[in-house]
């Protein structure tokens, strides 16, 4: 009997369902650990519970609770040397991903992104009422955006956006390309990283008017103002500035329904030169919609944020490209389990007889 058959044959119990019912406890512990700068203190040498009490100012019992949770969630681990007899108290280390992304002050610190959706927590538990309300606006949370909220928002997105953008320029060869249009480019992560990597390239970040004020600040900080410009506009309406030979749209997908995304892809097709390429990067479901969970949850997030968006499958995204006229359409894994990339080429125009 295979493992799978054995699992199916086994009498069901409540373990998995209880885990799902109480999954929120893990989010809450992660937020509290970030608040207490637990992982930063561990990296800085507070590697025992006694030292953590001192460093965090928390009661010993709460440090004990927090450390137990963090150990069981594999956020903290016992160090290899903890079994050494001369150590009076066992020592802790951060798990590798925690050490890379949750130590404050480090370049890759992603605390702002990890806690970005924290204010939405109460609304997730009002989901039933929100669904019965049947409200929702075209732009959802973006309707109310101000320059200040856009700055705060992109402090969070940039903490992971630049990493994704570095992955993009390593995966996609843009040598010979001249102008990239970055739809909903936010912090400008993709445009900035792409012009830094490909010296002949220029880029235009198109985002909502309050956002591009913040975008310009990122562009200036990176010292690429001479090669990256901005346009304040709503990408769901109107034609795009061009011509361009590359269009990128990253991490906007579930904000909109199929009609809107298909419309954006069609207008991107129109602004591209023949032979140009488009990349749509986003959380996509497999065609049978059995995963990944995160893609489905970003779709549900739009209920919470009050838009009419939903998650899209890989096949649907490929369909938007094909309907627009793109060829060589393919969907590949971009960040495993998180983001996929749909790609297409605008074919040369067929000469009119
Ligand atoms: C999650 S952020 C992604 C930013 C960037 N592409 C990245 O990957 O780092 C989504 C961005 O899409 C922009 N956006 C959403 N709807 C938009 C619209 N209708 N027109 C223009 N920009 C839009 C938002 O303002 C925000 O900057």
Quick structural gist:
The protein has helices at 3-9, 15-21, 24-35, 38-43, 49-56, 60-72, 96-101, 111-114, 121-124, 127-133, 147-171, 189-197, 209-222, 258-271, 293-305, 314-324, and strands spanning 76-78, 92-94, 179-183, 202-207, 228-232, 244-250, 272-282, 284-285, 312-313, 327-335, 339-345. With 353 residues, the protein is α/β, with parallel strands linked by helices.
Explain what you see.
The protein has 353 residues and is of the alpha/beta class. The chain has helices at 3-9, 15-21, 24-35, 38-43, 49-56, 60-72, 96-101, 111-114, 121-124, 127-133, 147-171, 189-197, 209-222, 258-271, 293-305, 314-324, and strands spanning 76-78, 92-94, 179-183, 202-207, 228-232, 244-250, 272-282, 284-285, 312-313, 327-335, 339-345. The protein has a seven-stranded mixed β-sheet with strand order 5-4-3-6-7-11-10, with helices on both faces. Helix 11 (147-171) packs parallel to helix 12 (189-197), helix 11 (147-171) crosses helix 13 (209-222) and helix 14 crosses helix 16 (314-324). The termini are far apart. The chain binds S-adenosylmethionine. Residues 139, 142, 157, 161, 184-187, 189, 207-208, 211, 234-236, 250-252, 255 line the site of S-adenosylmethionine (SAM).
What structural keywords apply?
single chain; alpha/beta; Arc Repressor Mutant, subunit A; Rossmann fold; seven-stranded mixed β-sheet; two-stranded antiparallel sheet; binds S-adenosylmethionine
């Amino acid at each position: 009997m295979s493992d799978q058959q054995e699992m199916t044959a086994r009498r069901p119990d409540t373990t998995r369902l209880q885990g799902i019912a109480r999954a929120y406890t893990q989010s809450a512990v992660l937020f509290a650990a970030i608040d207490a700068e637990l992982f930063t203190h561990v990296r800085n040498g507070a590697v025992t519970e006694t030292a953590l009490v001192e460093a965090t100012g928390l009661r010993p019992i709460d440090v004990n609770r927090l450390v137990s949770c963090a150990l069981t969630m594999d956020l903290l681990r016992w160090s290899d040397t903890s079994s050494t007899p001369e150590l009076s108290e066992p020592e802790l280390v951060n798990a590798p991903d925690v050490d890379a992304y949750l130590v404050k002050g480090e370049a890759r610190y992603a605390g702002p992104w990890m806690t970005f959706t924290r204010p939405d927590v109460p609304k997730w538990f009002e989901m039933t009422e929100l669904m019965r309300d049947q409200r929702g606006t075209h732009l959802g949370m973006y309707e109310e955006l101000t320059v200040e909220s856009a700055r705060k928002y992109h402090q969070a997105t940039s903490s992971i956006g630049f990493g994704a953008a570095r992955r993009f320029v390593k995966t996609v060869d843009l040598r010979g390309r001249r102008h990239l249009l970055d739809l909903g480019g936010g912090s400008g992560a993709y445009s900035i990283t792409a012009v830094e990597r490909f010296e002949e390239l220029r880029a235009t970040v198109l985002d909502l008017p309050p956002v591009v004020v913040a975008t310009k600040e990122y562009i200036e900080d990176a010292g690429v103002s001479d090669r990256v410009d901005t346009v304040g506009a709503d990408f769901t309406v109107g034609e795009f500035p061009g011509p361009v030979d590359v269009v990128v749209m990253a991490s906007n997908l579930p904000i909109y329904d199929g009609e809107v995304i298909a419309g954006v892809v069609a207008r991107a097709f129109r602004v591209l030169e023949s032979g140009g390429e488009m990349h749509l990067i986003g959380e996509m479901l497999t065609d049978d919609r059995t995963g990944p969970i995160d893609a489905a949850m970003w779709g549900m997030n739009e209920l919470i944020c009050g838009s009419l968006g939903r998650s899209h499958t890989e096949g649907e995204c490929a369909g938007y490209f094909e309907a627009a006229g793109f060829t060589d359409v393919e969907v590949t894994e971009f960040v495993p389990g998180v983001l996929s990339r749909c790609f297409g080429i605008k074919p040369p125009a067929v000469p009119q007889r």
